[in-house]
Structure formats: structure tokens, C-alpha cells
Predict the structure.
Amino acid sequence: MVRHTFSISEKMRILQLAEKTGNVSQVCRENGISRSQFYEYKRRFDSQGIDGLVNLPPIHKNHPQKTPPDIVRRITDLSLEHPVWGCSRLSKELDRNLIHISSPTIQRILSQNQMRSKLDRISILEDRAVFEDLQLSDEQTAAIGKVNPCFKERHRKSNRPGELLIQDTFLMGTFKGIGKMYLHMAIDTFSCYVFANLSNNRLPISAVILLNNSVLPFYSQLGLKINVVETSNSRCFQGDIENPYELCVICNDITHVNTKGKAKTHKLFTEKFYNIVVEEFFREAMAEKEYSNVDEITPDLQDWLLYYNNERAFEGYPNMGAVPMQKIDTFLLL
């Protein structure tokens, strides 16, 4: 990404906007800067105040002991290839390739290229993965995932709506006059569009009702096919063809995949939505009204889902601030 030069007032505006919105990625995108450039402004402002935002004078280009550009490029490439490696390890690796550079020199070169710390390098990789569609190695993806767990969602997303859905069931709790209440959900990994309903059980038939009444009609109306549905290990989704859920997906030519060892990435989608729906809907709804059964809550949940899917900006991967339905509409217009 090209680095832009901003005045002090422009840098202050960017920092204040990020603090106000809480969305660094969107602010960087709108102003045409990288996350590493933004955090460089923030670090300098936090340590030096307004003086830290003054544009530094250019460094003299010629120096008798300057490291050749091709060696500098080899160092930065190797550091991004292995973002968690320290300068000593980089120096030893270069030695094996007959490139003799000391650790302090490597540290200086990395600092000059805004790659001083592990977090700087990971931030650069994340920017390139998002804005330049860089294909990351397993090592690079794991490094980013440790710093930003939701980054793994990007590698679980599909190429179109309906290609991969994640379905699960959560116990919301036991309520007076209602009993146990379960939330059945299905999430489109391309757009984060969510389908959900409530029931007093986690039986397979409740999951089937969500598919038949909400999910299948939605994609049918769009002229799209559901390819894969990934579910948890819940008994609701397990069993042979006698299980109503298994029979439903077979009849609709949908591939059913059980999470098994992939449970962690599966939960990144389901638990994120669970936390949102509890915080933004259930707490307010249960405080404002006294419900006597699940059927009374369902219409209010569906009204909230209309807002969630059609108006609420979804932060993070894979939407990067886009509204779920907006992302689907954009795909259909391509």
C-alpha cells in the first residue's frame, strides 16, 4: 500500500475519527493508509504529543556503508515470510545463504521499513491479505490468528452466498413461565447473513424448521443453491438418514459436514453472533417485556434480525464494515 504524507491536522483528524468510531480498519480504508501507518501516528502521538506528528525530514540517500537495496529487500521479505522470527534468527538464516548481516543492522533496516516489532510485521501481512489478496502461508496465518483471532474467519468465508453455511443451537437459559429456551441459528459465511428461530427444545425437527421455513426459501428466491452446511457435534445434527435433519439436507442436495476438529473456527462465527444477539436483543427485550412463551418472543426476534441483516454494519471479517444484505446485493450485481 502506498504511504501518504499528511499534515499535522489531518493526522489528528484520523486519530480522533478512529477513537470516535472504534473502527481502525474502516478509517484506514477511507483515508487510503495502512494500519501500520496509522499505528505509527498513534505511537508517536502517545509518546511525543503533537510534536510526534511533525513530518520528519528525509534521510540522506547516500551513505558509504549503506546496505545494498537487494539485500534490504531480502531481509524484509524474509522477515514477512517468518513474522515471529527475531533479528538473531534472521541473521543466522541469512548467513546460511552467504549474506552476512549483523543483528543490529537487521533491526535498523526493519525499523526503517516500519517492521521493527512482530506486531508491525503482522499488521503489514494483514493489510496485504485484505487489500492485495496476498496468499498467506500456514505460518503467516497462524501468526496473525494469535494476534487477531477473528482473522481466521476470512479463511472460512466462501466465494458466494450459500456456498457455506454454519448451523448451530445454543441454550439461552431457563426462564420463568417459559422454561428452557434454545436459539437455532444458521450463518452465511460469505455475508454473515443470519437466520434464527427460538424453541423449547434442541430436537432435529427444530433445526429442520429453520432450514425449511427460512433458509431454503431465501436462497431459492435469490436463485442460489446451498452447497454445504457445517454443523456442530450436537445430537440435533447427528445420526443416519432416519434423523430428520440428515434427511432434510439429503433431499435438498446439500452436503452436511460435521465440525469435528474444526470446532474452533466454527465457533468464531456462532459465538460472535450469540454474543451480539444476547447483548443487543435479549437483554433489552427481556427487560422491557414479560413474555409467557417462546411464540411471543419470536416476532420481536425476527424484527431485530431484519435490522441486523439489512441495516447493521458488521465489523471485522469477512464483511469489513458492510451490512450483510448489502454484501449479498453487491455479489448479485456482479
In short: The mean pLDDT is 83. The longest helix spans residues 263-288. The radius of gyration is 25 Å. The chain has 13 helices and five strands.
